[in-house]
Write a structure and sequence with these properties.
Layout lengths: L5 H11 L4 E5 L2 E4 H17 L8 E4 L4 H13 L3 E4 L6 H10 L3 E5 L1 E2 L2 E2 H8 L8 E5 L8 E2 H6 L2 H4 L1 H12 L6 E6 L9 E5 H15 L6 E4 L6 H14 L2 E4 L5 H11 L3 E4 L1 H13 L32 E3 L2 E3 L6
Helix pairs in contact: 1-2, 2-3, 2-8, 9-10, 11-12
């Protein structure tokens, strides 16, 4: 496949197998065709709200279909997403939203006990560039909207159809356009926004899929956060370019990871070393059916000195420090 931008890959996969499942989260199964349609709806909604190619859209949310819909829809429109950790509170959003100049924030209504609606309503004076607030999973404050309302907005209501077509043409799907902006942790100074283009993200995804031999038979389970390259590039886009299936958890939970793995029986578990050790420790304490397991892998660190995965080192394919993949084949 020689497509040069992220939407090209999604549309190509949809043409090849519109009814093939792309993403499973919880009990929801979304096909390549359905994801393509969701991306188009989101793009039209964004265009109708005045988002133009090059505008930055910040998102602070757990892994979910809304996150992916926004990412692919924004890419279709030519608007890069600014990925924020939903655990951020005041200091990080203050700096990152003002520094990026994002005119829109898409956010979880609640994350655990934290009420983002209340927080952002009070926080608005500190982020004057943000004109639009969209909330996932709940109602927002006055003048905000829900993600469902964004998706369901019709061309006749918002003029989004014409705006989308005009701006989509402007975007021209250039591979060198920014697709995402990820901020560094800022441990030695202010966080820095790393601009990732369509071309760079797809190059990494294709290299990983090729290195691990992923194809349309590959099924990956993942709890890596989408606001990190481990989730969006090494997980989502690598599965996309391979044409496989992704089972995605909202956040990491050892028990839920193993429950979903037992239910969907993936042949790849994506994560970092701790994400392997914790579930397998639980397995050792409470044995489960592992007849479908063929190969285990973990990172270079954490496997020495009696680790329960130490005997798996010979089967390990380490992509780079800190990110690895299980290869577990179904029986």
């Amino acid at each position: 496949m020689t497509a040069g931008a992220i939407p090209d890959f999604l549309e190509s996969r949809a043409r090849q197998g519109r009814d093939r499942v792309f993403v499973t989260t919880g009990s929801k199964h979304v096909t390549y065709g359905e994801m393509e349609s969701l991306a188009a709806q989101v793009a039209m909604g964004l265009a109708g709200m005045g988002i133009r190619p090059g505008d930055r859209i910040a998102i602070a949310a757990l892994n979910g279909l809304e996150w992916l819909g926004l990412f692919f829809g924004a890419a279709l429109l030519g608007a890069p997403v600014v990925t924020l950790n939903p655990r951020y509170r005041e200091r990080e959003p203050d700096y990152m939203l003002n520094q990026s100049g994002a005119p829109m924030v898409v956010c979880q209504a609640r994350a655990g006990e934290f009420d983002f609606v209340e927080f952002l309503e009070k926080f608005r004076p500190k982020i004057p560039t943000v004109e639009h607030f969209v909330f996932i999973g709940g109602e927002g404050f006055s003048a905000s909207m829900t993600f469902d309302e964004l998706v369901e907005a019709r061309a006749g209501e918002m003029g989004s159809g014409q705006a989308f077509q005009e701006q989509r043409s402007m975007a021209a799907r250039e591979p060198h356009r920014p697709a995402a902006i990820l901020y560094t942790s800022g441990t030695t100074g202010q966080p820095k926004g790393a601009v990732l283009t369509h071309k760079s993200m797809l190059a990494s995804a294709k290299a990983q899929a090729s290195h691990l031999g992923w194809d349309e038979q590959t099924s990956v389970i993942m709890a890596l956060p989408l606001n990190h390259v481990g989730g969006i590039t090494c997980g989502v886009l690598s599965v996309l370019v391979a044409g496989g299936q992704l089972v995605m958890l909202p956040a990491f939970s050892p028990a839920e990871m193993m429950a979903q793995a037992g239910l969907y029986r993936p042949n790849v578990i994506a994560g970092v070393p701790t994400m392997y050790v914790m579930p397998l420790e639980a397995w050792r304490q409470e044995p489960r059916d592992t007849s479908w397991r063929d190969r285990r892998a973990a990172g270079e660190r954490g496997l020495r000195g009696g680790s329960i995965l130490a005997d798996a080192r010979d089967d390990c394919r380490v992509l780079r420090r800190g990110w690895v993949a299980f290869n577990w084949r179904r029986s």
